[in-house]
Write a structure and sequence with these properties.
770 residues; alpha/beta; TIM Barrel; seven-stranded parallel beta sheet; five-stranded parallel beta sheet; 28 helices; 21 strands; binds methionine; binds zinc ion
C-alpha cells in the first residue's frame, strides 16, 4: 500500500492545551491514571478527527501518531524500559513521570534542547547495565485504539541511532552506542508487534543525520543509520517504513538512506536540499534504485509560522521527481513546534488582524497546504492555479505592507560600520569602571529576575484583562521592585537588579514594546513536558519607538546608592525565541534588533546606569547544525551583540549572561562579544568550564554560577566557598564575580533568601583570603 502525502507530526498539547491541563491535574492528584488515560485518548481522537477534516485520509496511514504524555525521547526510554538504576521500584506512569520530573527521592533525567529548536527532550542515560528490551506497548496500543475509532495511523518514533547519539553514558565507562544491537533488537520486536496489530506504515525519525553538533561525527551517524536500517528493513513481517531525516540538510547522507532499502524516505527541503543526480551517481545511486520507492519531500516548513510560498514549493516537488522516486508532499519536520490554528487568534491591532491571518500558517493551515500541493502534483498544477495565484497575491501584498520595510531602519542598518561594533581598549575600560563603581573583590550580583510570585502574575493578568488600570499596575510593580532592592541591600549584595517583576517573559516583554512584532493570545507551543510558550511573531522591521526599561530602572536606582543593572535581552535570544520573518536574512533582522537595543542601552546610560546587562542565553542554541554555516552565524550573532552594546562610554560596564556551559564550539565567539563581565552556568559541572576559558586566554570579567537555580536546594556556605576556591584557581580574582547560574524567577522567596545569604557569606569568606 503506497503512502499518501502527509505531515511528519502534529502538535500534541491540544488546541486548548488539554494535555497540559490533564497531565498537571494528574500530578496534582486531581485525576487518577484512568482519568489521565481517558483525557489523553480523547485529545488524540479529537486531533485525528481534525486532521481528517483538514483533508488527510482516515485509513491510508497519512495520519501521524506522534502523541506523547511528555516527550518523544522519553517515550523511547519507556518503550525500551531503559530507566537508570536509581528509578528501581517504580513502574508505569509513576516511572514515566519520575524520569521526567523526579520525585521526592530521585532526580529526573537531564533535559536539553532538541537540535536547534527551543523544544527540550529528556536525555537518556545508557550504560553497559541499562536494561533494554521491548518493554512497553503504548505505541502499539495507541495504534489499536485509533483503529477501533476508524483511523489507520502511522506511528512516529525516534530512530535508534538518534536515540543513542542523544543519550549520555550512565557511569564512567563506554558509550551509549555500545548498546546499539540491543536497542535495534527491541525495535525489531516493535516492528513485528505493529505489523501484527495491522499497521501499514511506521515512521522513524533520525534527525541526528543532519547535525554536525553532536558528539558523534556525522559520517559515523550516517554509517550507523545505513547499517541499522538495512538490517531492520530486511526483517519479514513488518510494516512499511518511512525513514525521515528532518531538521536540516540530508543531501550528503541521502545515498545512505537509499541504500537501507526502506520503502520511503523523508527529507527536509525547507532547511535542506536534495542531492543532485550527479552526486548520487558518484555514490553509485541511480534513478532505478529509487524507482518504486517514495520520497516524502518536506516542502512545508514545520517550525515557523509563515504561509508557504506554494509556487516555490511546487518547483521543489518538480525537481525532486528528477531523482526517480515517487514524490509526495510532506512537512520538513513534525508540526510540534508550531501552534494549532490561526483561526483561534485575533489581534487587537486592526491592521495586524486584517493582514496576519493571510500571512500565517499554523499547524492546521500547513496541513491544508500539504493537501493542496498534493492535489497539485496528482492532478496537475493547473487544477490548483487559483490557489497558487491567491497565495502569490498574499505574498506580494505582504511585501508591500507598511512596517514590513521601513526605509529609516534599512538605512540605519546599512550604515553600520566596524567602529559601531567596537568598544575601546579593555584595560582602559576596566580601569574606568573600577574607578566609577568602587566594588570589592569578588563582587556579588544576580542574573536579573527575582521570584515571580503568584501575586505578581495575578496583577499582570488583571492588568491585561483591564481589571486594574495602568497606575494601579505600575504601583504594584514598584512595590515589588522596592521589596527586591531592600532585600538585596539587607543581604549586602554589591550590584543589584530590579528583579524583572514587570516582565511576563524576557523576550515577549520586548516584543510587545518594539515595532515589528505581534504577540499571540493562543499561539502556544510545547517547550517541554506540560510547559508551553507563546513565541512572538517578528513580521516587520524592528525599531524602538516607545519608552521601555528606563522608568523601571530609574525607580529601582532611586531607592539605593548601590549600582542597579540595566537589564536587556540580546538580539540572538529575541530571534531564537520568536517566530521570525524569512523574507530578509537573519543577520539583518539581528542588526535591526541590535540597533533598537542600542537605543535602549543609550537611554539607560543617559539615565545614569553604570552597569547594563544584555542577556544572550540562546547564542549556543541557534548555532546551525551544519558545520559549514557556523562561521557565518557566529560572525553575525556576535556582530549584532557588539552593535547593541558598543556605543557606551568606557566607564559603563557591559555584562552578558549565557546560561549553559557547553562552550566548546563557541568559545571564541563568547570572547568576541567583548562584554566586560560574562556570567555562565557552572554550578552543576563544578566550574568545569573555567580552565577551558583560561586556556583560551579569556581575560575579562567572568561570573561562573555557583548556585544551581534549577533545583530547589539551598547550597551551603561551605559548598559555595569550595566552588569559589576552585574558581580562583583558573580566574584572576580581580576578574571573578559571584552569582547564581541564572535568573530566580522560578524560585520561591524562602530559598532565594537563604541561598543568597550563603552566597554573600561565601564571597566574603573567599574575599578575605586573597
Ligand atoms: C534564561 S536567562 C534569564 C536571564 C534573565 N535576566 C533572568 O534573570 O531571568
Ligand atoms: Zn539564564
Amino acid at each position: 500500500m503506497s503512502l499518501p502525502s502527509t505531515i511528519l507530526g502534529y502538535p500534541r498539547i491540544g488546541r486548548k492545551r488539554e494535555l497540559k491541563k490533564a497531565v498537571e491535574s494528574y500530578w496534582a492528584g486531581g485525576i487518577d491514571a484512568d482519568g489521565l488515560a481517558a483525557a489523553e485518548a480523547e485529545l488524540r481522537r479529537a486531533n485525528l478527527a481534525r486532521l481528517v477534516e483538514l483533508g488527510l485520509g482516515a485509513d491510508d496511514s497519512s495520519l501521524p501518531e506522534n502523541s506523547s504524555l511528555y516527550d518523544q525521547v522519553l517515550d523511547v526510554t519507556h518503550l525500551l524500559g531503559a530507566a537508570p538504576e536509581r528509578f528501581a521500584g517504580r513502574e508505569g506512569l509513576d516511572l514515566y513521570f519520575a524520569l521526567a520530573r523526579g520525585d521526592s527521592s530521585v532526580a529526573p533525567l537531564e533535559m536539553t534542547k532538541w537540535f536547534d529548536t527551543n523544544y527540550h527532550y529528556l536525555v537518556p542515560e545508557i550504560g553497559p547495565d541499562t536494561p533494554i528490551s521491548f518493554a512497553n506497548r503504548d505505541v502499539v496500543d495507541r495504534f489499536t485504539q485509533a483503529k477501533g475509532w476508524g483511523y489507520t495511523t502511522r506511528p512516529v518514533i525516534v530512530g535508534p541511532v538518534t536515540y543513542l547519539v542523544l543519550s549520555k553514558p550512565a557511569g564512567e565507562n563506554g558509550s551509549p552506542l555500545d548498546r546499539l544491537d540491543d536497542v535495534v533488537a527491541a525495535y525489531g520486536e516493535l516492528l513485528t508487534a505493529l505489523a501484527e496489530a495491522g499497521a501499514q506504515w511506521v515512521q522513524f525519525d533520525e534527525p541526528a543525520l543532519v547535525s554536525d553538533n553532536l558528539t558523534v561525527p556525522r559520517t559515523e551517524i550516517a554509517h550507523l543509520v545505513e547499517q541499522v536500517w538495512t538490517g531492520l528493513a530486511a526483517r519479514e513481517n513488518r510494516p512499511n517504513i518511512l525513514l525521515a531525516a528532518p531538521y536540516g540538510d540530508s543531501s550528503a547522507v541521502f545515498p545512505a538512506l537509499v541504500r537501507t532499502g526502506v520503502e520511503a524516505i523523508g527529507v527536509d527541503l525547507d532547511r535542506g536540499t536534495l542531492p543532485t543526480p550527479e552526486s548520487l551517481a558518484n555514490e553509485g545511486v541511480s534513478p532505478s534504485d529509487l524507482a518504486g520507492r517514495t520520497l516524502v519531500a518536506g516542502v512545508v516548513d514545520g517550525r515557523n509560522i509563515w504561509a508557504t510560498d506554494l509556487s516555490a514549493a511546487a518547483e521543489k516537488l518538480e525537481a525532486a521527481r528528477g531523482l526517480g522516486a515517487d514524490v509526495l508532499v510532506g512537512t520538513a519536520t513534525s508540526l510540534q513546534h508550531v501552534p494549532h490554528d490561526t483561526a483561534l487568534e485575533t489581534w487587537d491591532d486592526p491592521a495586524l488582524n486584517e493582514n496576519l491571518h493571510a500571512w500565517l500558517a499554523f499547524a492546521d493551515q500547513k496541513v491544508g497546504e500539504v493537501v493542496l500541493l498534493d492535489r497539485g502534483i496528482r492532478t496537475g498544477l493547473d487544477s490548483i492555479r487559483a490557489e497558487l495565484d491567491a497565495n502569490a497575491a498574499v505574498l506580494a501584498q505582504r511585501a508591500a505592507t507598511e512596517g514590513v520595510s521601513v526605509p529609516a531602519v534599512r538605512e540605519r542598518v546599512a550604515a553600520l560600520t566596524g567602529a559601531d561594533r567596537t568598544r575601546g581598549d579593555y584595560a582602559e575600560r576596566r580601569a574606568a569602571q573600577a574607578a566609577r563603581l568602587g566594588l570589592p573583590d569578588l563582587p556579588t550580583t544576580s542574573i536579573g529576575s527575582f521570584p515571580q510570585t503568584a501575586e505578581v502574575r495575578q496583577a499582570r493578568a488583571a492588568h491585561a484583562r483591564g481589571d486594574i488600570d495602568n497606575a494601579a499596575y505600575e504601583a504594584r510593580m514598584k512595590e515589588e521592585i522596592e521589596r527586591t532592592i531592600r532585600l538585596q541591600e539587607e543581604l549586602d549584595v554589591d550590584v543589584l537588579v530590579h528583579g524583572e517583576a514587570e516582565r511576563n517573559d524576557m523576550v515577549q516583554y520586548f516584543a510587545e514594546l518594539f515595532d515589528g512584532f505581534a504577540v499571540t493570545k493562543h499561539g502556544w507551543v510545547q517547550s517541554y513536558g506540560s510547559r508551553c510558550t507563546r513565541p512572538s511573531i517578528l513580521w516587520g522591521d524592528v525599531a524602538k519607538s516607545r519608552e521601555m526599561t528606563v522608568p523601571w530602572w530609574s525607580y529601582a536606582q532611586s531607592l539605593t546608592d548601590r549600582p542597579v543593572k540595566g537589564m536587556l535581552t540580546g538580539p540572538v535570544t529575541i530571534i531564537a525565541w520568536s517566530f521570525v520573518r524569512r523574507d530578509i536574512p537573519l543577520s539583518e533582522v539581528a542588526d535591526q534588533i541590535a540597533l533598537a537595543l542600542r537605543d535602549e542601552v543609550a537611554a539607560l546610560e543617559e539615565a545614569g546606569a553604570a552597569v547594563i546587562q544584555v542577556d544572550e542565553p540562546a547564542l549556543r542554541e541557534l548555532l546551525p547544525l551544519d558545520q559549514s554555516r557556523h562561521a557565518d552565524y557566529l560572525a553575525w550573532s556576535v556582530g549584532a551583540f557588539n552593535a547593541a552594546t558598543a556605543g557606551v562610554e568606557p566607564a559603563t560596564q557591559i555584562h552578558t549572561h549565557l546560561c549553559y556551559s557547553e562552550f566548546g564550539q563557541i568559545i571564541d565567539a563568547i570572547a568576541a562579544l567583548d562584554a566586560d563581565v560574562t556570567s555562565i552556568e557552572a554550578a552543576r559541572s563544578r566550574m568545569e568550564v573555567l580552565p577551558d576559558l583560561k586556556e583560551h586566554g579569556f581575560a575579562q570579567g567572568v561570573g561562573p554560577g555557583v548556585w544551581d537555580i534549577h533545583s530547589p536546594r539551598v547550597p551551603s556556605v561551605e559548598e559555595l566557598t569550595s566552588l569559589l576556591e576552585l574558581a580562583v584557581e583558573s580566574v584572576d580574582p580581580d576578574l571573578l564575580w559571584v552569582n547564581p547560574d541564572c535568573g530566580l524567577k522560578t524560585r520561591g522567596y524562602e530559598e532565594t533568601i537563604a541561598s543568597l545569604t550563603n552566597l554573600v557569606a561565601a564571597a566574603k569568606a573567599v574575599r578575605a583570603t586573597i
